[in-house]
Design goal:
The chain has 258 residues and is mainly alpha-helical. It has helices at 4-66, 69-78, 84-95, 102-113, 126-168, 173-179, 192-213, 218-229, 246-257. It has two domains: 10-147, no CATH class; 172-258, Orthogonal Bundle (Helix Hairpins). Helix content is 75%, strand content 0%. It is elongated, with a radius of gyration of 28 Å.
């Protein structure tokens, strides 16, 4: 009895060491693609900041040269006999010629890179349009490759998690056949249920975030996310505005008056 006790202790120690080694291997295998994705994210954000700041500076320079907002406001006051519909159109033109900041430039370049194009910001100067066109021609294909690479990182992380799950629950034959249909651990099939759950988790977090930050309803947040994920970008909802714009309110009042 006493002779077998050291063997049992050694066996338990070896088992603990093996588990720790497997855990370290899993963590390192997950951190490697995650670090790669983070490095690509840093490069992308640097690109967006640089190009966005450049476009904002070009737009501000052109706007200052073309339009003085005070003179335009005086012009509207002197022509107060305009109809309400015409006044809304003039306000819309004026709102497009307000000054940009770096944040708005980054927002615009992101909408270019992701091919969403919400329509909230658009360049009105020739220099801004030229830079936007060159940016689209050069970096939109790179953005597509980045999204593909990011999806492969997600797939790699999920695959390694499934392999670890199979090793821990090797007694479950049904789970093994679901993840490894051919019995080959080099070919991992990610169940559609897991992909659906991951997508739903992302949507729920984003909906809660938009409801808190933008003061939207859950339905409005879901509508905005669907138009964003599908890269449609209708433009009727966009971040950064808690309420309707001035022109939208005037349009609503005009329609109600009629």
């Amino acid at each position: 009895m006493l002779a077998t006790l050291p063997r049992a202790l050694n066996s338990r120690k070896n088992c603990l060491r093996l588990r720790c080694r497997c855990m370290r291997t899993l963590i390192s295998s997950l951190l490697s693609p995650l670090a790669h994705a983070m490095s690509m994210l840093v490069i992308t954000m640097t690109l967006l900041l640089t190009v966005g700041d450049l476009i904002a500076r070009l737009e501000n320079f052109g706007i200052r040269a073309r339009n003085d907002s005070m003179q335009f406001a005086i012009h509207l006051v002197t022509r107060s006999n305009l109809s309400q519909k015409r006044l809304v159109e003039q306000l819309g033109k004026w709102s497009q010629q307000t000054r940009w900041n770096t944040e708005e430039g980054v927002y615009f370049t992101f909408s270019l890179l992701s091919t969403i194009g919400y329509g909230k910001y658009c360049p009105i100067t020739k220099a801004g349009r030229w830079v936007s066109g060159i940016f689209i021609a050069l970096f939109v294909p790179i953005g597509v490759l980045y999204v593909q690479n990011l999806s492969s990182v997600y797939q790699s992380m999920l695959s390694r998690l499934l392999i670890e799950l199979r090793q821990r629950l090797s007694s479950s034959q049904r789970l093994s056949r679901l993840i490894f249909p051919n019995g080959d651990e080099t070919i991992v099939v990610i169940p559609i249920t897991m992909l659906t759950l991951v997508m739903q988790a992302h949507l729920i977090v984003a909906i809660v975030f938009l409801c808190i930050i933008e003061d939207w309803t859950p339905m409005q947040s879901l509508y905005f996310l669907i138009s964003t994920v599908t890269s449609i970008g209708f433009g009727d909802f966009h971040t950064g505005t808690h309420n309707l714009s001035v022109s939208s309110k005037l349009n609503a009042s005009t329609n109600s008056g009629h």
